[in-house]
Specification:
248 residues, 15% strand, alpha/beta, globular, binds NADP nicotinamide-adenine-dinucleotide phosphate
């Protein structure tokens, strides 16, 4: 795999789970990694320690992705400290699950705010720097359920399906300046998010996964690393599944 030299990458929600694995994988490829987090400073510091253990470097940047002004301030800081942002991974995400009949406004709005608005705010700010540099990679972490639907997850699924449309629109708009935009749709990956599922549900999921296991965060991270490398220069506007075969 081509090494990413002196590139500056921002991973939203880099404190835990898939985001942490992505931060470490990008560091391994030589990028300076900005680890965004919202409420887990110790976990974020642990990610940064792991980045440094890989011989890489980075910094912590706390902001809630759903706060447009906080995102703008964070990007002002990135611009003045680094003068560039080459890679954005919109990974921060939450899920508020339950039946449609009982879903509260707040749960719907909160999920859309973090997963969809947050990705939009970060991509808009990142695109200014990338268009100027005539090079950029934006990866949106969607979900297999954004492609296939899932009962009990109307807000989450809507936000993840929205990310797929956003990816394609942005890819068309930014392509002429060599900025690629792709979505990744993970299936069930072992993280805090899926650890919250009860055993019965996990057993049911397993039956739907031809490869017969949950995925690992690092497997998703390796795909992100590839898509942000020079080897993926001709891939844009794509939705790439990594789900053990549960959706084909
Ligand atoms: P996770 O273990 O719950 O971690 C979520 C991450 O998002 C944390 O680092 C958290 O940081 C951050 N975050 C949450 N709200 C935030 C906010 N408002 N602003 C900034 N950061 C915020 O989740 P995960 O399983 O790694 O999932 C990562 C992404 O992959 C999500 O977008 C998720 O929807 C997607 N995904 C996951 C799976 C799966 O099976 N795990 C499958 C498909 C897609 P703090 O703790 O600091 O708040």
């Amino acid at each position: 795999m081509t090494e990413i030299k002196k590139r500056v990458a921002l991973v939203t929600g880099g404190s835990r789970g898939i985001g942490r694995a992505i931060a470490v994988a990008l560091a391994r490829q030589g990028a300076f990694v900005i680890v965004n987090y919202s409420s887990s400073p110790e976990a974020a510091q642990e990610t940064l320690n792991m980045v440094r253990e890989q011989g890489g470097d980075g910094e912590l940047l706390k902001f809630p992705v759903q706060d447009s002004q906080a995102v703008e301030n964070a990007f002002d800081g990135i611009k003045s400290r680094h003068g560039q942002l080459d890679i954005l991974v919109n990974n921060a995400g939450i899920s508020r699950d339950g039946l449609l009949l009982r879903m509260k406004d707040e749960e719907w709005l909160q999920t859309l705010a973090v997963n969809l608005n947050g990705s939009f705010f970060c991509a808009r700010a990142a695109s200014r720097l990338m268009l100027k540099a005539r090079w950029g990679r934006i990866i949106n972490i969607s979900s297999v359920v954004g492609e296939m639907g899932n009962a009990g997850q109307v807000p989450y699924v809507s936000s993840k399906a929205g990310l797929i449309g956003m990816t394609k629109a942005m890819a068309k708009e930014l392509a002429s300046r060599n900025v690629t935009v792709n979505a990744i749709t993970p299936g069930f990956i072992e993280t805090d998010m899926t650890a919250a599922l009860d055993d019965k549900l996990r057993e049911e999921h397993m039956k739907a996964i031809p490869l017969g296991r949950y995925g690992q965060a690092d497997e998703v991270a390796q795909l992100v690393a590839f898509l942000t490398s020079d080897n993926a220069a001709y891939i844009t506007g794509q939705v790439i599944g990594i789900n053990g075969g549960m959706y084909m």
